[in-house]
Automatic annotation (TrEMBL):
EC number: 1.3.5.4
The protein's name in its UniProt record: Fumarate reductase flavoprotein subunit
Keyword annotations of the record: FAD, Flavoprotein, Oxidoreductase
Entries under Gene3D superfamilies matching the protein: FAD/NAD(P)-binding domain (3.50.50.60), Succinate dehydrogenase/fumarate reductase flavoprotein, catalytic domain (3.90.700.10)
InterPro entries documented for this protein: CobZ, FAD-dep_OxRdtase_2_FAD-bd, FAD-oxidoreductase_2, FAD/NAD-bd_sf, Succ_DH/fumarate_Rdtase_cat_sf
Originating organism: Achromobacter agilis
Keyword Membrane (UniProt): no
Keyword match Lipid metabolism: no
One MF term in the entry's GO annotations: oxidoreductase activity
Name of the top EC class for this enzyme: oxidoreductase
SUPFAM superfamilies assigned: FAD/NAD(P)-binding domain (SSF51905), Succinate dehydrogenase/fumarate reductase flavoprotein, catalytic domain (SSF56425)
Cofactor(s) in the UniProt record: FAD
Domain called FAD-dependent oxidoreductase 2 FAD-binding: residue spans: 3-429
C-alpha cells in the first residue's frame, strides 16, 4: 500500500505528487492518458499569473495582491471565494523558486503577449515543457507513475478514502489527491449542462474541445453522486472563441483568435453583439467562447483590416482575405448587404483619438449599440480579413467544494484523507469568467497544499518509521 495516491496527470496532480514525495511519503500517480498525451490541459498552457511587489526576473514592475484580486473579482463578477482566491494569489508569489527546483524554466513574454509582461511568468517551452520537467523530477524522486490508468470509481468509508478502482483492479492508499480534471470532453454532460436554446439548438453540439480528450468527468460525477459537496454552475467554463477549423480535441492556444479587440465581431446574421474593446484581451478573451455559444449556430466572425496585421499573435490558420467587404462576406457565407451595412455603421460611429493597443485608449464609438469602448478604428483598409469562430471549451467550473486545506467535504465536514486540486475544485475561485494564467495559479497552489496535506494524513495513519525513505 502506498502512502499517497494521486489521480490525474496534469499540473495540479504533479505538484501534489512532488510535494507529498518531498514530505517523505511514497506516492503513486495514475494518469488516464497514454504517456504521449500525458499532462491533461496543462500541456497547452503558457504561463502562470503571479503576484509580485517589485520587479522579479521575467516579471516587470509590480503586480500587488490587491490589483490581482480586483482583476479576479472583475472577471468573475463576484462569483469567487475571496479567502481561497487570496490564498491562490499569495501562493503565486512564492512558488516559482520551487518550480525551478523541479526543472521549470521561465522566459520573458513574446512580443505578442506584452499585455501580460507585468502579470504573468511564461514557461520556457510552454506547458508541455513544464509537464515534462515535473514528470522527470517526480520519477527521479521515486514517484511511481502509471499511464493508461483511468480510475472509474473510489471506495469510500463515510468521508474517508479507502481505495481506487480501475475496472476490477483495486488500489489502496492511506491518503488520496483527486486532480483528474473536469468534464469538458464529455459531450453528453455538456449537452445536459447547456440544454436546448430558444432556437431549438443544442449549443454544446457545436463546441470544440481546446484541451485533452481524456477529461470525461468520471471521478467528478462519482464524487458528486457519492454526496461530496459541490460548487459551481455546470454551464460555466473556460470557453474561448477559437478558429472554427480547429480540431475537435487538443487544438490548444494556437487555435485562439486574438484579433477580436482590433476589429469587430459579427454573428451568422452579420450583426455585432458585444463590445470588442471592453478591456485588455488577457482579461476578456475567455468570455468570447460563451458569447459565441449564445449566437445562432454557435458561430461568429472576427473581422479586421490591414491596419491590424502585426498587432496580435497570429493563429495557426491564416484568415480568409478579400479586397472588398462584399467579397469577404461572400467568402464567409454572410449576407453581403447586411455585412456592409454593419461595417459602415461601425465605421461612421468611430471617434478615433490616439490609438494605443497597449493602453485603454480613447478610440471609441458614439451612438452605436453595442458600443466599442476602446481601440475603435474604421475597418477601411484592404485587404480585409475574416476568421470564423466556434466556442472552444478548455475546462469546466463545476467542482468539489473545499476550504484552505484542499479537503473534500461531505455535508460540510472535511475528509481527513481525501483531497482535491486543479480543475476539480477551480470553481471555488472561478465562478465564471477568466483572466490569463489564473488556472495554473489555482492548480499550483492547491496541488501543493493537497500534496502536503495528503502526506500528513498518511503520516497520521502510519507511524513515521514506516514511511518509505525518499529516493
Amino acid at each position: 500500500m502506498v502512502d499517497v495516491l494521486v489521480i490525474g496527470g496534469g499540473n495540479a496532480a504533479l505538484c501534489a505528487a512532488l510535494m507529498a514525495r518531498e514530505a517523505g511519503a511514497s506516492v503513486l500517480l495514475l494518469e488516464a492518458a497514454p504517456r504521449e498525451w500525458r499532462g491533461g490541459n496543462s500541456q497547452h498552457t503558457r504561463n502562470l499569473r503571479c503576484m509580485h511587489d517589485a520587479p522579479q526576473d521575467v516579471l516587470v514592475d509590480a503586480y500587488p495582491e490587491e490589483e490581482y484580486w480586483q482583476d479576479l473579482l472583475k472577471v468573475t463578477g463576484g462569483l469567487t471565494n475571496e479567502h481561497l482566491a487570496r490564498l491562490v494569489i499569495r501562493e503565486s508569489s512564492t512558488c516559482r523558486d520551487w518550480m525551478r527546483r523541479h526543472g521549470v524554466n521561465f522566459q520573458p513574454p513574446l512580443s505578442g503577449a506584452l499585455h501580460v509582461a507585468r502579470t504573468n511568468a511564461f514557461f520556457m517551452g510552454g506547458g508541455k515543457a513544464l509537464v515534462n520537467a515535473y514528470y522527470r523530477s517526480a520519477e527521479a524522486l521515486g514517484v511511481q507513475v502509471r499511464y493508461n490508468a483511468p480510475v472509474d470509481s473510489l471506495e469510500l468509508d463515510g468521508g474517508r478514502f479507502v481505495a481506487a478502482r480501475i475496472g476490477g483492479e483495486r488500489i489502496e492508499a492511506r491518503a488520496c489527491v483527486l486532480a483528474a480534471g473536469g468534464f469538458e470532453s464529455n459531450r453528453e454532460w455538456l449537452r445536459e449542462a447547456w440544454g436546448q436554446n430558444e432556437r431549438g439548438e443544442w449549443p454544446a453540439d457545436n463546441f470544440l474541445i481546446r484541451g485533452t480528450r481524456f477529461n470525461m468527468g468520471v471521478l467528478l460525477k462519482f464524487m458528486l453522486d457519492a454526496g461530496a459537496d459541490g460548487i459551481g454552475d455546470p454551464s460555466q467554463s473556460h470557453c474561448v472563441a477559437i478558429d472554427a477549423r480547429a480540431p475537435l480535441y487538443d487544438g490548444g492556444i494556437c487555435t485562439r483568435i486574438d484579433c477580436v479587440s482590433l476589429g469587430v465581431v459579427v454573428n451568422r446574421d452579420a450583426e455585432r453583439f458585444y463590445d470588442e474593446g471592453e478591456d485588455f484581451w488577457p482579461k476578456r478573451y475567455a468570455i468570447w467562447g460563451r458569447l459565441t455559444a449564445m449566437q445562432p449556430g454557435q458561430i461568429a466572425y472576427s473581422i479586421i483590416d490591414a491596419k491590424a496585421i502585426g498587432r496580435f499573435m497570429p493563429p495557426v490558420f491564416p484568415g480568409v482575405t478579400a479586397d472588398t467587404l462584399p467579397e469577404l462576406a461572400e467568402k464567409l457565407g454572410l449576407d453581403p448587404a447586411t455585412f456592409e451595412q454593419t461595417v459602415r455603421q461601425y465605421n461612421a460611429s468611430c471617434r478615433v483619438g490616439k490609438f494605443d493597443h497597449t493602453a485603454l485608449d480613447d478610440c471609441h464609438t458614439e451612438g452605436l449599440t453595442p458600443a466599442k469602448t476602446h481601440w475603435a478604428r474604421p475597418i477601411d483598409t484592404a485587404p480585409f480579413y475574416g476568421y470564423a469562430l466556434r466556442p472552444g471549451i478548455t475546462f469546466t467550473y463545476l467542482g468539489l467544494k473545499v476550504d484552505d486545506t484542499a479537503a473534500v467535504r461531505f455535508n460540510d465536514v472535511p475528509s481527513d484523507n481525501l483531497f482535491v486540486a486543479g480543475e476539480m475544485m477551480a470553481g471555488n475561485v472561478l465562478g465564471k469568467g477568466y483572466t490569463a494564467g489564473v488556472g495554473m495559479s489555482i492548480g499550483t497552489a492547491f496541488g501543493r497544499i493537497a500534496g502536503t496535506r495528503a502526506a500528513a494524513a498518511a503520516r497520521r495513519q502510519h507511524s513515521a518509521g514506516a514511511f518509505h525513505e525518499a529516493a
